[in-house]
Amino acid sequence: MGTNILYIEDNPDNMMLVKRALEARGYTLVQAANGSEGVAAAESEEVDLILLDINLPDIDGYEVARRIRGSAKHALVYVPIIAVTANALKGDAEKALAAGCDVYMSKPINIRELWARVEAFVPSPQKPF
Q1: Which CATH number is 63's domain given?
Q2: Which residues form the domain of 53?
Q3: How deeply is 49 buried, as exposed, middle or buried, from its count of CB atoms within 10 A (0-12, 13-18, 19+)?
Q4: Tell me: the pLDDT tens digits for 41-51?
Q5: Most buried residue, 25, 75, 79, 94, by most Cβ within 10 Å?
Q6: How confident is the model at residue 2 (pLDDT cuts 50, 70, 90)?
Q7: Whole-prediction pTM
Q8: What is the pLDDT, as a whole number, of residue 92?
Q9: How, if at all, do strands 4-8 and 49-52 pair?
Q10: Which of 127, 91, 121 is nearest to 2 (CA)?
């Protein structure tokens, strides 16, 4: 069973918070600080879930999701993508879903909600089933 989660996030504080929260549950976090790095990591690493910030410094998360879904690496069509963003305007969730994300989650990050959303797709290695 896979436990690798890719987090594409440019804010180091958010990255550290999510890293600590997920590693406490036994997941391995693959980190990318911008959209281009995130797409490259998704294509080169074996990941079971992607957490994706929408506001990134190079290409936005919507474009990242589209590139991942259109990747030549066929398995990426099926890897769940959770958009994690401060965007809370009407239509933002729909835009994320239309770009290829499976779930939309708003910031600030609630750790219990994060665990629940992640575990819905990838059961925690440290919890009994």
Answers
A1: 3.40.50.2300
A2: 4-121
A3: buried
A4: 999 999 999 99
A5: 79
A6: low
A7: 0.93
A8: 84
A9: parallel
A10: 121
